């Protein structure tokens, strides 16, 4: 039996492949035509082939539950998510605007603090942020860049408008899945990719390497990727990017501060390290400067960094912009530094530390999404309409106890993309994480990781919560 989208439901939600009246959207025609030439069995065989390839290539992540580690593949649905070129061009401008303003914001709050003095962002909001690092006050990172690698989470609502869901400026993950999903698409649908005219993403490791070279002082710098170790959930990605760039993958055992420099142990003796792409959080980086209990950091590295003898990407302190309460102020931040309106809007956000918003949230918990300021991965969150009355009361009390630590947003019906379910297609909700590199200019990679909520009706796309991925095709 031929595979068909004939009975695919396009009602209720914005669908990325079909309009509400069932017409195919621009850029999706070649894919639909090719897939409907396949039988159900042929398409399912391609899906199973992709899943086996992910496992055989070792493209996995770890989930830890009650002390027990489980290695999983990030499920890939082989039906791509297509983003039209015009839509992407608008997103690119908006992301460049956002990253420019956020970089200026981070630099300001650790130096002149003009935005705090002018009352645009409340001073106590910054000083009570878990990710604000006093040790970074007065810091001037190489080339004035704080956020070198960013993954900004976007969603699309009922009317098809893209919105920013959250910013990820510390150690954004997932780019290896973006790259490998594309490689699998090339194997599974090579002729469709060519006919559709999809912008490439495979040069990301080369662009990342050039960015890391740019922030170094030496013309031929020694670059390493610093991982917390093999038990980290994203260890595959750390090793993958190091291999793709042709640089060393190191952990804390491989690096030492000696003679005022960061040095790497090698079979030839110690070598000075010029640039470190760090994949561990700020506070674990240096037990002498931040968390004294860290066993995965390098004692003294922060002092070397402050003296300009090593470059770090991302700069310590960038995590303050990941605070979900500060996220609510980003449109004001853009207006303050650039005198522009935000090109990509935020999701409507209620700030629980503000009295009127707090009152509204407490009265409407059952209709809202509640988020903790510094949680990630789908944790520390309540989806009001899907929660129990007991859970509503628990979160009401949490918010009353610490209103600074919570924001609330309306439930957004995320856009959908067809997914293969058994032998047919069903819509599943998606978000999009584009990756942005900030070196000699700001470079938005044309695509990103589309994360998909594989459980029917779910709005949680995180891989640790049962989500998967799709290849993202950006057309010219």
TrEMBL record:
Pfam families: CP_ATPgrasp_2. Transmembrane segments: none annotated. SUPFAM superfamilies: Glutathione synthetase ATP-binding domain-like. Residues 80-453 form the Circularly permuted ATP-grasp type domain. It comes from the Bacteria. Coiled coil: none annotated. PANTHER family: BLR5612 PROTEIN, SLL1039 PROTEIN. This is Circularly permuted ATP-grasp type 2 domain-containing protein.
